[in-house]
Design goal:
With 190 residues, this protein is mainly α. It has 2 domains: 54 residues, Orthogonal Bundle (Arc Repressor Mutant, subunit A); 128 residues, Tetracycline Repressor, domain 2 (Orthogonal Bundle). It is 75% helix and 0% strand. It is built from 9 helices and no strands.
Amino acid sequence: MTLSGETRRDSRGLILSAARQEFGQQGYAGGRVDRIARRAGVNKQLIFYYFGSKAGLFQAVVESASRDIASDAGAAGLSGGPLDQLRALLERAFNTLAANADLLRATVVASETGEGSRALWAEHLAQLGETIRALVSDAQGLGYVRDDVDPAIVAHTAVATVVGSVVLPGASGDRRPLGEIDLLIRGLAW
């Protein structure tokens, strides 16, 4: 069976999208390859052809979702003053994490997914933290942020706030943490 490049990409994308929904709703242990195949409208064997196993599929889903965070973790495209840029970055990060809330929760909170998946999230969240640290440090150098503020602690607190507002029990992915973000930024300024 020979698949054209276009068909292959479409099928792979459909599978990843269906798997993201399935694993997000059911977790890794509860996610079923046959349901993913039905959602994607493909043969179950095609999933194994592309991803090798359920674990390989889950890893690909986490890689795809964590790449979304990595692409949003940079300061590129941010406008305004340093504190406006920080606010925009935190809102963008929250929106990306909220769009992947169930998958993030299943990966970070659940223990069945293994260290590799958590390590991917951790790597990209660390990139986000480094971007926040650099923004705060630059704002501090320009006089927008108090001198007694430690940019690394602010970065850690900001990432924890955004992630916690998505993954903690009772967190709502549709509730934007604008109050928390505003409080954090007001605490930095003179």
